Amino acid sequence: MRLNSTLSYFILEGYLHVGTLRYLYFMLTAVTYISIVLSNVLLVVVICVNRSLHEPMYLFLCSLFVNELYGSTGLFPFLLLHILSDSHTVSVPFCFLQVFCFFTYANVEFYNLSIMSYDRYLAICCPLQYNTRMSSNKAFIVIIFIWFYSVVKCLITLSLSIRLTLCGNRLNSLYCHNYLVVKLACSDTTVNNIYGLFGVVLTVLVPLLLILFSYMKILKVCFSGSKHMRQKAVSTCSPQLVSLLNFSFGCSFEILQSRFDMSSVPTVLRIVLSLYFLVIQPLLNPLMFGMQMSKLRNAWKRVLCDRKPTDAKNHESQ
């Protein structure tokens, strides 16, 4: 039976019936989302208002923090609504909008981390040529290209999924996932599968090759350089490596869960891991980069500390 002509909603079957505990989960989810928004917005504002941070590395970080806000906003308001709801349905247009949001988020994240690794390679291995090979203007152009390319690439994925004839409307997930929608199709999905594999190569393997090249060169310089050089490399590169490994782990499980039978895995663990890359990454990045990178850490401390005397002075004048 073909349903795409009459299909108006999908049913999300990943939610558990938790009774009155839903209010506790709602509060925990809301606090998590507020923490993500505040931490990422703070660092975006700090980078934007401090001219000393208008350097390629911090511009790439700003793009990364904006992407964390974008990805988490695609999930959390939707998740909060469904935690309190007894009916876990989502309209077809909104479902595809969410698919687009998560796809662009994942693409921008990988590309952003890869170009950040290349930026560190230039700064550590080619310091004399850094200002000419990676200027602020070039960094800004690269950021625009990353976002534009990710949007176009994901629009193609979305258009291939929208054209399918669907024979069901049940998704075993907490949110809309493109491959789960494709699995409901009773029309030919060959083009979707081929483009999906092609997309994985462009989104994961190509950035990974750039990252491996960059860090191999950095390690080579570190082992042959001074102690100060090694400390500088560790302080600037370790947050990027941790962020990359963390995001790769979260995405890997989500890909495996959507393509293979995970019924043997406990339901609660499946839920936690399916949310991992959309929850932990937006929390982890501002914490790591904001605390580990001294120039950025000193900048946001100045912003927070400078407000206190001003607020006190304004209060006394009143």
Task: Provide a descriptive summary of the structure in words.
There is one protein chain. This protein has 318 residues and is mostly helical. The chain has helices at residues 22-49, 56-84, 92-125, 130-133, 136-162, 178-183, 190-224, 227-259, 267-292, 294-317; strands spanning 9-12, 89-91, 170-171. Helix 2 packs antiparallel against helix 3 (92-125), helix 3 (92-125) packs parallel to helix 7 (190-224) and helix 7 packs antiparallel against helix 8 (227-259). The radius of gyration is 22 Å and the shape is globular. Mean pLDDT is 84; it is low at 309-318.
Q: Topology of this structure?
A:
Blueprint: E1 9-12, H1 22-49, H2 56-84, E2 89-91, H3 92-125, H4 130-133, H5 136-162, E3 170-171, H6 178-183, H7 190-224, H8 227-259, H9 267-292, H10 294-317
